[in-house]
Design brief:
The chain has 164 residues and is α/β, with parallel strands linked by helices. It contains three helices and five strands; from the N terminus they run αβαββββα. Helix content is 36%, strand content 34%. It is flat, with a radius of gyration of 22 Å.
């Protein structure tokens, strides 16, 4: 029997003990704070990518979405929701070679009498190289980056809400 086979269980036990000692634990599921049982989302853009993903995550977590602010127990307000791209670098012939896709979101959470989360702004960015010979592929890459940014934004906002 090799030495590694004898030491392996001990190494695994030590690794598990180190993880437990450092405070590591799996995240678990989203638990809505008290007062968010019936939430209204106030926004100017009812069709944004963020809003669609955010509503789906709230529903999956068991939060009921209200159609009006008057019968809601909490109001999640989105005051700014914008996505776009900007040029990062250009070639010697002044042709864009690299773009940055960004998504900016400003939001707050209130429960009528109490402000659970003051207004805050999140901006996430991703960059990609551009090649004019691969226009269709680069357009799809930009779309996928935007989707990934939205998922990250939703994850961050849900985590912030779960800590309340």
């Amino acid at each position: 029997m090799s030495l590694f086979k004898l030491i392996r269980p001990t190494l695994l036990l030590l690794a598990a003990a180190n993880l437990a000692a450092c405070g590591f634990h799996l995240q678990g599921v989203f638990i809505a704070p008290a007062g968010m049982e019936r939430t209204y989302i106030a926004t100017g853009d009812r069709y944004s990518q963020f809003l669609r993903e955010f509503k789906a995550e709230l529903r999956a977590a068991g939060v009921e979405l209200s159609d009006s602010a008057s019968d809601a127990t909490a109001i999640f307000t989105i005051t700014f929701d914008e996505t776009s791209q900007r040029v990062l670098s250009v070639s010697a012939r002044n042709v864009p070679t690299e773009y940055e896709v960004y998504y900016t979101l400003t939001y707050s959470l209130d429960t009528g009498a109490k402000n659970l989360m003051p207004e805050q702004t999140l901006t996430l960015t991703r960059d990609y190289t551009y090649d004019s010979t691969l226009v269709l592929g680069k357009a799809r890459e930009e779309e996928l980056l935007r989707e990934a940014i939205v998922k990250d934004l939703v994850r961050i906002v849900m985590k912030q809400i779960s800590t309340l």
